[in-house]
Design brief:
Order of helices and strands: HHEE
Shape: globular
Radius of gyration: 15 Å
Number of strands: 2
Number of helices: 2
Length: about 60
């Protein structure tokens, strides 16, 4: 996967902030891949997301929820 320089910078900032807080709590650091995975998981828990110029409504018919 290729990420833009801006995206990499944002992920790095998030990872730094998360790992500072984890360190204070005595937890092990997370990787950039884990941060990205958590962002994706968080997006799936929203009722709608806006990606690539389109709204994606989630939780529609047939998803069992």
């Amino acid at each position: 996967m290729q990420l833009s320089t801006d995206t990499r910078s944002i992920l790095r900032q998030y990872k730094t902030m998360i790992n500072e807080r984890r360190r204070e709590a005595g937890l092990s650091p997370v990787t950039t891949a884990k941060v990205l995975e958590e962002i994706c998981e968080s997006a799936t828990r929203q009722c709608a997301v806006y990606l690539c110029g389109h709204f994606i409504l989630q939780g529609g018919k047939g998803d069992g929820q």
